[in-house]
Design brief:
The chain contains 5 helices and no strands. It is an all-alpha fold. The chain has a domain at 17-60. The termini are far apart.
Length: 119
């Protein structure tokens, strides 16, 4: 990761098998909204609008997936603490602690259960 640059993307999606005329109508309305000067001004406060077709957005997603899958594969071979935020590490540790507590409770339950039947 020479540049260490991370950007986010937001977009609209529809369920699979949505009729093409609905997708086209949504795309037309979204692109019209993105062309509105008031919306542009709001978006420029923290991002850049990329109006386009559903195919354009699909390509963007495919490109980002390819790029970040390489980063994830690389990170799997490295010490996770060096690539994971403090909050991420906290969540992983909390999950491990919950699993350990569950395991401990299960062991205690098994120790308290009497052997044999009460008949």
């Amino acid at each position: 990761m020479p540049s260490k640059q991370v950007t986010g993307s937001f977009g609209f999606g529809t369920p699979r098998n949505t009729p093409a005329e609905i997708v086209d109508k949504l795309n037309m309305e979204i692109n019209a909204a993105l062309a509105d000067p008031k919306i542009k001004a709001l978006l420029e406060l923290g991002g850049t609008a990329l109006p386009g077709s559903p195919a354009d957005f699909s390509k963007l997603i495919a490109d980002k997936t390819e790029k970040w899958s390489k980063v994830v594969k690389f990170a799997k071979h490295r010490d996770w603490q060096r690539f994971c935020s403090k909050r991420c590490r906290e969540r992983v540790l909390q999950k491990q602690m919950r699993q350990d507590a569950r395991s401990h409770r299960t062991q205690l339950r098994q120790q308290k259960e009497p052997e044999g039947s009460f008949e």
